[in-house]
Every structure is written in structure tokens, then in C-alpha cells.
Amino acid sequence: MFYWLMKYVVIGPIVKAIWRPWIVGRRNVPAEGAAILASNHLSFVDSIFLPLMLDRPVVFLAKSDYFTGKGLKGWATRMFFKGTGQLPIDRSGGKASEASLNTGLQVLGSGDLLGIYPEGTRSPDGKLYRGRTGIARMALEAHVPVVPVVMVDTDTMMPIGTRIPRIVRVGIVVGEPIDFSRFAGMEGDRYILRSITDEIMVALQRLGEQEYEDVYASTVKDRLKPKSR
Fold first, then answer.
1. Cα atoms found within 13 Å of the Cα of residue 157, Cβ hemisphere only
2. pLDDT score for 11
3. Helix (H) or strand (E) holding 60
4. Range 164-171 average pLDDT
5. Nearest to 131 by CA among 120, 147, 140
6. Nearest residue to 36 via CA among 151, 137, 127
7. What does the radius of gyration of the chain's CA atoms come to, in whole angstroms?
8. pLDDT value at position 8?
9. Angle at 41 between CA 141 and CA 131, to 5 degrees
10. Closest Cα partner for 88 from 103, 69, 76, 73?
């Protein structure tokens, strides 16, 4: 109820009126049943515009930090993320990564749409980077299609590090679902997982025509951090 209230009464109408988002390929999102929406990740607001422009709810796995803030700001942030259908996950790796995978599988097992950013983090410079293989494992274990999604100009609207969004029209391009059933039962093969993940990233690159670099976005971010003296 809270999700629908935020989408259709509180947040949705205001956001649509100000930024006038557009979408192409909406019909490529399955009308029912579970599916993974694999999106590039340019800005914090990606997780707002994609669910807003689809008829079905989309569940994203968000950093647990967004749900643990203190004070009024922490409460507002927590309510916002819950209201937009996002679930907290620990991205620290190891057992935390396994827990995140299981959380995603629970969403898919309920027949819902799961939004995933295969790059694992926001692009630091607008390029598309190497995908993490967790998305491939989820697709095979849950037996669901992967729908490529490209966010357009959300980084221009709200670049990393800014707090006030610019008035820029943003868009979404949804590609045709990709069926990986030919790899059924092979979720334990790391070469298969890498092949599937690379196929997803190629689909995203072709759909959005972003410049692609075959390294992890997190590695690039580490390079860009100022070195302590």
C-alpha cells in the first residue's frame, strides 16, 4: 500500500511533472511472472525512474547503509527506500554476497520483477563497465529471463556527489528479454556464468551505445580516489 501511495500520489506525479521521463520498449517487460531487469547504473535516481515508468512493481537490492541512518534524515531516507520497493543488502562480500543472492532469489521466487545493476556500482564517468556474475547465477537458479534496460541522461540530471537534481528530461530504453534456459543446471560453472554476464553487458552496450571498458567500475573508482600522502 505504501509503495502504491508513493508511486501514484506522493512522489510519482511530482517527478513526472518536473522531469517528464520517457520510455521506449515498455512492452518488453513481462506482464506477469518473475524476471530480472538488468540496468546500467548512472545515477542514484535510476532506482526511482525505472519503477515509476513501469506498470509492475520493481524490487531493487540497495545498500544496507541507506536503511541504518540516524535522526530525521536517516528516517526519511529509510522510508523513501522502503516506499520505492527496495530491500537492504550487505555488499561487503563473502557470506554477505551469498545472502544478497538468496534475497534476490526470494523476490524472483515470489514471481516479482527484480532490478539489478550488473556493474555492481554506479559508473564513475558514464562508461559501461564489466558485469558481476551474480546476475547470471540468479537467472539460472530462478529460471527467469533477463530484460536489458538502459537509463538515459540520469547522470546529467544528478551526477555523483550532487544533492540537488537538475531539470533534465531523462529516459529509459527496454530491450527484448534474453532467455538463458539453454544453460539450465550449469549455475556452478564459472565460465558459463561469465559468458552469460558478458552477453548481458553486450546487450546493454548495443541498446544504449555507451562506451564499454572491460574492467570493474569499482576498480576505476579506486583509481580515481585521491591518494593520501
1. 21
2. 80
3. strand 58-63
4. 94
5. 120
6. 137
7. 17
8. 79
9. 45
10. 103
